[in-house]
């Protein structure tokens, strides 16, 4: 059996494209996840586009790594994405506060006190 220690970073596809709603146009950063079952838009973007929520849906945060059993109720909206070829694509989205936030680098006090790790933080 062979095992490689070499790691290969896999980065998602990204793009910028105009999103339009009722004459309001905002250039949005888009993160493509071809395996995802849902699409998301930030509350800030819906505010800029003056988009009104269509309905509320219930999702389980465990899909985002949250181990609790609570359910989140999120608003939905349909956005219109304009492609380079002029096509208008309607995409149903969930409205969320943030899509990606900075990762916090927290080192526990126990780890910090290990002799072989002293001075590495």
UniProtKB/TrEMBL annotation:
Gene3D superfamilies xref list: Acid Proteases
Domain DUF1758: 19-94
Pfam family name, one: DUF1758
Protein name (Swiss-Prot/TrEMBL): DUF1758 domain-containing protein
């Amino acid at each position: 059996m062979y095992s490689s220690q070499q790691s290969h970073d896999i980065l998602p596809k990204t793009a910028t494209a105009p999103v339009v709603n009722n004459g309001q146009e905002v250039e949005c950063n888009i993160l493509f996840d071809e395996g995802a079952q849902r699409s998301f838009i930030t509350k800030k973007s819906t505010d800029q586009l003056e988009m009104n929520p269509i309905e509320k849906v219930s999702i389980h945060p465990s899909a985002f790594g949250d181990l609790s059993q609570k359910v989140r109720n999120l608003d939905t909206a349909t956005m219109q994405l304009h492609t380079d070829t002029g096509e208008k694509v309607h995409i149903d989205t969930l409205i969320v506060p943030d899509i990606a936030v900075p990762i916090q680098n927290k080192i526990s006090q126990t780890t910090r006190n290990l002799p072989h790790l002293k001075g590495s933080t």
